[in-house]
Amino acid sequence: MSKRTPADFRIVGFIGFDQVSAQWKGGYLTADPELLDRADDLVRAGTTFELDPEAPPIPADLGEPLPAALTLTRCFDRITKAETVITLLEEFWNSFGLCAPQVVLRGGS
């Protein structure tokens, strides 16, 4: 079993009725084509993510772990699993000396 690095993540969910996933592991992104198509649209549109008013916006991108996780998260219709994405967000806030907001995740019924 391979060991995860702090930047590794995995997101699983649905686009329509199709289950899709994306994974960043060992510096490489793998994802279903439907996710990559949607992600490319966000990148081309110049989408940005503003996580905190005191931190710079993060442009949609697939070349680094945090922007890739944010970009891909926007591409799902429904997410069923997101492994280590919260850790990436906490590291981002900490890099600016900010406190990460509390995130409450609740399971659906």
Characterize the overall form. globular
Spatial separation of the terminal alpha carbons: 33 Å
Number of strands: 6
With strands numbered from the N-terminus, the spatial order across the biggest sheet is: 3-2-1-6
Q: Unreliable segments (pLDDT under 50, ≥5 consecutive)? A: none
Give the count of helical stretches.
3
Task: Summarize this structure as a short list of keywords or feature phrases.
two-stranded antiparallel sheet, 109 residues, alpha+beta, globular, 6 strands
Word description of this protein:
Helix content is 31%, strand content 27%. The protein has helices at residues 33-44, 65-75, 85-95, and strands at 9-15, 18-25, 28-31, 48-49, 58-59, 78-83. Strand 4 (48-49) and strand 5 form a beta hairpin. The N and C termini lie far apart (33 Å). The strands form 2 sheets. It has a 4-stranded antiparallel beta sheet with strand order 3-2-1-6. It has a two-stranded antiparallel sheet with strand order 4-5. By secondary structure, the protein is an alpha+beta fold. The chain is built from 3 helices and 6 strands. The longest helix has 12 residues, at 33-44.
